[in-house]
Amino acid sequence: MAMTTRLIGAAALGALALAGAASAEDFPSRPITLVVSFAPGGLTDIPARMLAPDLQQRLGQPVVVENKPGASGMIGGQYVVRAQADGYTLLVSGISEVQNLFYIHVPYSVRTDLAAVGKIADGPPLVLAVPGNSPFRSLEDLIADAKQHPGKLNLATTGPATSPAVAVTQLHSLAGIDIVSVPYNGSGPAAAAVAGGQVQAGFVWLPSVAGCRGCW
What SS3 class is residue 122? Predict the structure, then answer.
């Protein structure tokens, strides 16, 4: 749960199409789009934006990052699957693509409609954050309050089947508490919701709350 792998995936047979395009033309001959399946500021978005300038310099063509969040990453995934398999539309995603297979219906096949191109980052730890003015100063405090007020504690996540949502489920099961999972379109919006006090806590990736003055 603490670590995850982020992959760049191309549309169906994208890796093979890219190789074919390279022999047929001087690839790339036009801009490349990196589709991020979560909102700006999250764990998936940050590596993509760090990668884009280097790719642009190496390839000699503009590399544009385009966020298409929603449905636990499936909106971005489906957009790429439907795109032409020519190597110009790439998906930046990660473990959520695999987790979706076990929890919800996916309208495309991760195994056959997407081809892995390479790993770009190892994910940092998943942390439980609360607003800076929260009365909770430890996990024990949060669990004690949840037991005293069943169903009243709202925790931000990044959508069904994502690692933060799985973490909420595990906390619910292991601690024997009734807590509510509130989905957001990415770790950035989830962290903002925590900092703004819209939820009492949230499972988010460390970079999204590192240096956050409104979070603990």
Answer: strand
pLDDT reading at 116 higher than 60: yes
Of 39, 88, 25, nearest to 62 by C-alpha is: 88
Where does the pLDDT of residue 212 fall: very low under 50, low under 70, confident under 90, or very high at 90 and above?
A: low
What's the rounded Cα separation, in Å, for the pair 66 and 53? 14
**Whether the predicted model's global pTM rises above the 0.85 cut:** no
Structure tokens at 13: 């047979």
> What sign does the CA torsion over 186, 188, 191, 197 have?
negative
The pLDDT of residue 109 is 81
Task: Report which of 136, 212, 118 is spatially closest to residue 179, judged by C-alpha positions.
Answer: 136
**Do 116 and 14 belong to one domain?**
yes
Q: Is residue 26 part of a domain?
A: yes
Q: Residue 215 domain-assigned?
A: no
